[in-house]
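Changelog note: in this version the structure field was regenerated for every chain. One regenerated record is shown below for reference.
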Amino acid sequence: MVSGRRYDIDWLRVIAIGLLLVYHVAIAFQPWGVFIGFIQTNQPSEAIFLPMSMLNVWRIPLLFFVSGMGVCFAIQRRSWKQLIIERSKRILLPYVFGMAAIVPIHVFLWQKYYHQELAYSFSPAHLWFLGNIFIYVLLLSPIFFYLKKNPNGKVRIFLQKLLRNPLGLLVLIVPFILEAEIVKPESFEMYALSMHGFALGMIAFLVGFCLVYSGDTFWETVTKWRWPLFTAAFVLYLVRLLAFELRTSDYLMAIESNLWIFTVFGFGYKHLNHPGKALTYLSQAAYPVYIIHMAFIYLACFVLFPLNMASSFGIFLIVNIFTFAGSMLTYEFVIKRIAFIRPLFGLKTAKSISKNRKENADLSKIIHS
């Protein structure tokens, strides 16, 4: 059903998390940032958010797609029980630890900055994504393992026929349109801790799994049609920006979102499907960085915003640099190197890494024998 490692998917996960960090920094420079729990500058700049508005309809759905794809690869060597145990270690443990020990840091900084009463907060905050993913694994595993047992069944044959034609991509968008029209979210781009985010995420997770399950057909189609897909997505963005001031109808946002995602998959498959030392390092760092990055954003804002520096864009760059540097240095010199901390951030122990390398070597011998 699935053969070989897909480096482009690893790259897209790394890039998506990197964009997420920049997006979160940009929120601190918006006049509405404080209303969703961010420390907000006294010198807001809506111009900073303009490029972010191109990302906000597809950045989170892309991560759900990629997460579903990851499960499709993971179940090839795992039983249902092994998958749940592995995902509990990789997702549930960091999720609970993050709520207990990481989220309270930036909540404390927010409370301190706005002279609120200091109180301990046990909440998902930006880690809501992990909670959703774990629930999806539990709910959708029966479907996943049924498909695993039928690698050449009717579902796979149907998907291959459907995705061989670019019009088949429109069929994939239909569930997302229906979700938007049924749920009717207050804001399409607000996914965190909402029914919209949960439902859309589950659809993207399931579709992502099915795209890998179906084989190479989807990837060949989006690669061939990547430029038309990009053009269509960009036109819809311009319509949203210029005609509707970014508040177009939800069904158009659902279409635009998926067109961007298909575009990203097409260009990624064409240009990023190759290994490298940078990818090996960054793919390991991405998850811990995602967990801790908000603490560094809030710390930078806490220190810099009261200084009232002249250039909003300059402060924006400094906050980004501080966040990336602080997160990466913490990963490199603390999370990565202290054995008992690694599992709390979703990293494997040395024993697990050794076992995984042996499994990969055994699988490679089987494939090439």
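Spot check on this record: DSSP finds 14 helices and no strands in the chain. The mean pLDDT is 92.
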